[in-house]
Design a protein that fits this description.
Structural class: alpha+beta
Order of helices and strands: EEEHEEHHEEEHEEEHHEEEEHHEEH
Distance between the termini: 56 Å
Radius of gyration: 21 Å
Number of helices: 9
Strand order of the largest sheet: 1-9-10-13-14
Shape: globular
């Protein structure tokens, strides 16, 4: 006899793929000292997923940030082949500017405390929230809720998407976004995977993107939960994996958060003759549309734009606008005061909309 699932919460997220952590992983990242992130946070954020398809998440030993830095050096310096030359040069400068010990940390970089208690410089990743911040925001830490997460699944060897869903039973769940620092800009990848001529050798396109590519995906967010009870993963709302019920283990029944799933961003290889090709103008439109969506998200969250809160250096928003010669307005709230005005979000969005009109045709 079929069982009716009583759903009391629903979450629709933008995800190319969601994979399950089995078993769940403790989400216990400490808040590191200024200019640092923990080794656990860095390794989960930076390592490329072992597979961009499949139900369960595992990470490889490949550094996404290091491979992205290598990618920059393989792109053409001819504006005809790769149109965003100013952005490319800015990112090359950031990625190649590895800090020296004892010197000021440049924007885009951070420090990681290693097991031997020595600090190592790495490219920066940020989490939308840390465990203690999220726990403090939960008002009901006892009632069990059933949440359905809806998303579209994308595969690294094709551009089509399929519907997917995940059902989680826990006292509370949240999506925590994983954000790369100013060493990264998604426009670079979106052009490179769609324009083989963007490389100094077109064969590099398949080496970096697609099913077997070095950069076929990245971890873009984690799904966390407190007191998880069960999880079910559906593909096209059919053929679910067996329902995973977490054992009556005391570790799952404490007020500690766990990572239940990984949200992946997939980078399929789209070449002329495979997906119909994409012109440089369309790629630029797509990059601007994505930036508008990000600005709207940051506005809703009241997050800083234009400057990194810890270093006061330009972030990827400022670099994106600057590389196109567009005016940009920063907005940052900090203990020392407020920089800019809340209206900066909409002003910047309007600037991109005007810029987009010029790309029509």
């Amino acid at each position: 006899m079929a069982t009716t699932l009583q759903v009391d919460k629903q979450l629709t997220i933008r995800a190319d793929q969601i994979q399950i952590f089995s078993p769940p992983q403790k989400w216990d990242w400490d808040v590191a000292a200024s200019g640092q992130i923990t080794k656990e946070q860095f390794e989960l954020s930076d390592y490329v997923p072992a597979s961009a398809s499949g139900t369960y998440f595992n990470r490889s030993g490949t550094s996404f940030s290091a491979q992205f830095s290598s990618l920059l050096n393989l792109l053409s310096t001819d504006a005809t082949d790769f149109p965003l030359q100013d952005l490319l040069q800015d990112l090359k400068s950031i990625n190649q500017n590895r800090p020296e010990h004892g010197k000021t940390i440049p924007h885009g970089w951070t420090r990681i405390m290693q097991d031997d208690q020595l600090l190592e410089y790495q490219r920066k990743w940020s989490a939308e929230r840390h465990p203690n911040e999220w726990l403090a925001s939960i008002s009901d830490q006892q009632s069990i809720h059933t949440t359905v997460i809806e998303f579209e699944e994308k595969y690294p060897n094709q551009s089509v998407s399929k519907l997917g869903a995940m059902t989680i039973q826990a006292t509370s769940i949240a999506q925590i976004n994983i954000l790369p620092g100013s060493w990264y800009d998604s426009s670079i990848i979106n052009i490179a995977r769609r324009r083989p001529q963007a490389f100094i050798d077109e064969s590099y396109a398949s080496m970096y993107f697609g099913a077997a590519g070095i950069l076929n995906s990245r971890l873009s967010a984690i799904i966390v939960a407190m007191m998880p009870h069960s999880i079910t993963h559906f593909h096209e709302y059919q053929n679910p994996i067996p329902r995973i019920t977490f054992p009556e283990n005391p570790q799952y029944r404490t007020c500690k958060p766990y990572i239940l799933a990984a949200v992946l961003e997939i980078f399929p290889l789209e070449q002329a003759g495979i997906s119909g090709g994409v012109t440089g103008r369309k790629i630029e439109r797509d990059a601007c549309e994505e930036m508008i969506q990000r600005l709207a998200l940051y506005r809703d969250k009241n997050w800083a734009i234009g400057l990194h809160g810890d270093t006061q250096q330009p972030d990827d928003f400022a670099l994106f606008f600057g590389s196109r010669g567009l005016p940009f307005y920063a907005y940052l709230r900090s203990p020392s005061g407020i920089i800019g005005d809340f209206s900066a979000y909409q002003t910047n969005i309007d600037t991109l909309k005007v810029y987009l009109k010029g790309l029509q045709g």
